Amino acid sequence: MVVIAFASLKGGTGKTTLTYNLASFWADSGRKVLAVDFDPQGNLTFAFLPPESLPEEAYTRWLFSRKSPQPFQVSENLWLLGSDNKLSSWDMRGTSPDLFLPSQLIRSLPFELVLLDTPTGWRPLTRAAIFSCDYLVVPVDPSPFAVAGIVQLVEGLVELSERQGKAAEILGVIVNLAEEHTRITQKVIASVKQLMSEERFLGVLSKSVRVKETVLERKPLHVLAPQSKLSQQIEEIAKSHREEGDEKVRKKKDTLSELEERGAKVLEQLEPKRRKAFRTAKQQAIETERQQEGSEMTAKVTVRMPVDLVKALKHRAIDEGRTFQDLVTEAVRKFLEQ
Ligand SMILES: Nc1ncnc2c1ncn2[C@@H]1O[C@H](COP(=O)(O)OP(=O)(O)OP(=O)(O)O)[C@@H](O)[C@H]1O
Ligand SMILES: [Mg+2]
Questions:
Q1: How remote is the CA of residue 205 from the centroid of ligand 1, in Å?
Q2: Are 48 and 35 in contact (CB under 8 A)?
Q3: Ligand 1 mean position, distance from CA 151 (Å)
Q4: What residue owns the CA closest to ligand 1's atom 3?
Q5: pLDDT, tens digit, 9 for 90 and up, residues 250-300
Q6: CA of 200 to the centre of ligand 1 (A)
Q7: Does residue 177 line the site of ligand 1, with CB under 6 A?
Q8: Are the CB atoms for 84 and 42 separated by under 8 Å?
Q9: DSSP readout, 310-336?
Q10: Quick check: CB of 237 below 6 Å from ligand 1?
Q11: Are the C-beta atoms of 128 and 65 separated by less than 8 Å?
């Protein structure tokens, strides 16, 4: 099984459009595909079918409940786990260990290829989806912030791998909504190529009104307009992955740190001031999250901790000149990481 998530911190870059069209294309090419909607907006779900026709056990939220969901079959080789607004309650539980449950449950389902549509931004649901996948595909639109968005996502991945001991590889970046003759599109393509190695530049998708028709008609592009330029471009990306995508990526282990380093350089050239402001804001956000995590976990564990462990920690606190609170947080962290 290969699990691919479509993710970008910026909204409206084409995550849902790509998940929908690639899932449909690969399924029609004979692969057994599961599409999973991790976005409470439910746009992917809506693209496949009217939401009311989805049975209760075919919702993505089941992946968080320790029960195996029953994906809904939408065509011969394609199944869906759909979402609606109820999924957003998981965005309120930022530090819950249950956010990592989908990762195991997805692996227990009998599919060859699983595609995850993620919500915009670095939210708990985004992290849950990213933690569940092997590879990330990052669509960007031709905007001045495209490269910054990729770098921020890489930094999020590095952070996730430090905390959870595992993170997905970036399969590649796609420049979507391209108007090839415009300067901004050309500039974004050049910067993305500077940032990513050649095999991680997955391609360019033109802007086309056909995309909206696919949702209206509930038909993917390769069925609705197979001869259109956009359909051909999507097909090319789909075929290149099938032939070589994952093998190529597996060979490179240090991708994230390499990318982070290169990203910092590219960004420094592009926009030094913005970069500095972002770093400070990010550091503050991480600090706040850590503090919240520490106090939340301590509160839970003081109830359950054996009395002699509490005593031992109190003695250690005195011996080592550290606070009791500190040692408890450390013990809980170690326990949760086991
Ligand atoms: N190549 C394209 N040409 C024209 N329109 C496109 C193209 N790709 C996406 N769109 C349109 O742009 C909008 C955003 O696309 P999409 O919903 O796929 O992005 P998203 O990243 O999933 O957005 P969100 O952040 O809301 O989840 C949609 O209205 C979609 O129809
Ligand atoms: Mg979307």
A1: 11
A2: yes
A3: 21
A4: 207
A5: 555 446 777 777 777 776 666 656 556 656 656 665 666 666 555 544 444
A6: 21
A7: yes
A8: yes
A9: HHHHHHHHHHHT--HHHHHHHHHHHHH
A10: no
A11: no
Residue 231: nearest ligand to its CA?
1
Residue minimizing CA distance to atom 31 of ligand 1: 212
pLDDT in tens, 177-213: 999 999 999 999 999 998 888 778 999 999 999 999 9
Q: Which residue's CA is the nearest one to ligand 1's atom 9? A: 14
Q: Record the pTM.
A: 0.79
CA triplet 293, 294, 299: central angle to 5 degrees? 100
Take residue 78 and report the two structure tokens written for it: 């394609």
Instruction: List, in order of start, the domains of the chain with CATH numbers.
Output: 2-270 (3.40.50.300), 272-337 (no CATH)
229 lines ligand 1 (CB under 6 A): no
- CB neighbours of 15 closer than 8 A, spacing ≥ 6? 6, 7, 8, 39, 117, 118, 120, 139
**What is the spatial distance between Cα 80 and Cα 241, in angstroms, rounded to a whole number?**
21
| CA–CA distance, 249 with 179 (Å, rounded to integer) | 29
